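To the wet lab folks,

You asked to see what we're planning to order before we commit. Fair enough. Below is the target structure as tokens, and below that is the sequence we designed to fit it. If anything looks off to you, flag it before the synthesis order goes out.
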């Protein structure tokens, strides 16, 4: 019957669309998206291997 199964309606809310990490809670997924993917990426300098 499915009364005791607490599966989410859609599994995409539990997976990061960028790095495909899976989380147990949609709130954790949103917190991860803000913290990990909201900042612009650092660019490497050509030839030095150091970040600009």
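Sequence we intend to order:
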């Amino acid at each position: 019957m499915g009364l005791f199964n607490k599966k989410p309606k859609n599994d995409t809310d539990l997976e990061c669309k960028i790095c495909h990490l899976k989380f147990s809670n949609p709130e954790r997924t949103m917190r991860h998206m803000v913290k990990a993917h909201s900042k612009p990426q650092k660019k490497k300098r050509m030839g030095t291997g150091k970040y600009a």
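Structural context that might help your review: The mean pLDDT is 78. Helices lie at 26-37.

Thanks,
Computational group
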